[in-house]
């Protein structure tokens, strides 16, 4: 009899757990479809080197396309116009600037090709309108200020093409500021004099200043110079993972005082300190030895390398999980509150965790937020409200607003 009662208890317990999980999923579905959901960083435009790549078609390898976004309940995406750091001279600046323009052109054409599904967005009003119309909002960000070279007029050129943020640097120092990860160490001592002009011009136009990838000193210099809130489009918390790409608690406090927002990056190495993994290290070294400097490769070879890198990740990496992502959200909320955090996946640039490998699985983050007791109000802010607040403030503070692209 006692055994029978125990079996009934276990069955009742498991049924209760199952019902609770089903309720969470249903609630997440309802929330995900009723609020604006925004991812502030993906590197999917790197795939445009393949003329056959179509955002309107579900692609087997990549993380982001319109069908995956629809499946995952993701309403808005910031597509990155990315250029890797290289030589710094006038001739190269012109070439890299042209490459950036080519990426803009490919992105705009890809969205236009899928005009029944998506449109280019440049304002919060665009994003909310498109959501109501059942369309995806395709925002644009420029990752790495490198193609600006030393020509401030290029900033307005990118703005006129639809860009609404510029990540000031990438993995190495440039003429704007120091990177957080340049092996050579700091060069400018933070933000350069030219970098200060870049910040001021972005303030004037109404572009968000993206402080992901830049050094700590560069971050604090930007905070001193900018008149508008800043964005960390894809960064996480150094208190939980020691990567220099992440923000310290003091930086989070400065970000709050500035009125900005940190968008948690879901790339594993920025979420938790990697455990020793000699097999992974060996495979990545083999990849590097085989192809050399990624930025020096042709577009077609870069595509090959990205595919091999993703395959190595899947086979050898000990992945972070959705729980790790929400741990970082929790940390920001505990340190500075729920008004200053969002999500910037870095999909197709290395981002992706167990339970959220592609845009089709974004709902799993909402489920975990609900599991931890977050209200719909907080989830609304985290998923898009906070970054739209920053964008609205930045555009409202523009001294000489210019027309958005037609």
Q: State the total count of DSSP E strands.
A: 9
The level 1 CATH classification of the largest domain is Alpha Beta
Shape: globular
Q: Do you know the CATH architecture of the largest domain? A: Alpha-Beta Barrel
Total count of helical runs of at least 4 residues: 13
SSE ordering: HEHEHEHEHEHEHEHEHHHEHH
Chain-averaged pLDDT: 92
The residue ranges in which pLDDT falls below 50 over 5 or more consecutive positions are none
**Cα separation of the termini:** 75 Å
Major sheet, described briefly? Answer: 6 strands, parallel
Hey, roughly how much beta strand do the residues contain?
A: 5-15%
Instruction: Evaluate the radius of gyration.
Output: 21 Å
What is the domain tally?
A: 2
CATH fold title of the largest domain: TIM Barrel
* Helical residue percent band: 40-55%
Give the helix/strand class. alpha/beta
CATH 4th-level superfamily of the largest domain: Metal-dependent hydrolases
What does this structure look like?
The structure is a single chain. The protein has two domains: 34-271 and 321-396, Metal-dependent hydrolases (TIM Barrel, Alpha-Beta Barrel), CATH 3.20.20; 276-317. The protein is globular and about 65 Å long. Helices cover 47% and strands 11% of the residues. The strands form two sheets. Strands 1, 2, 3, 4, 5 and 6 form a six-stranded parallel sheet that branches. Strands 7-8-9 form a three-stranded parallel sheet. Helix 7 packs parallel to helix 8 (249-258). It has 406 residues and is α/β, with parallel strands linked by helices. The mean pLDDT is 92. The N and C termini lie far apart (75 Å). The chain has helices at residues 2-34, 66-72, 90-113, 124-132, 153-160, 193-205, 216-225, 249-258, 278-291, 299-316, 322-336, 363-371, 376-396, and strands at residues 38-42, 76-82, 118-120, 136-143, 163-167, 208-210, 231-235, 261-264, 341-343. It is built from 13 helices and nine strands.
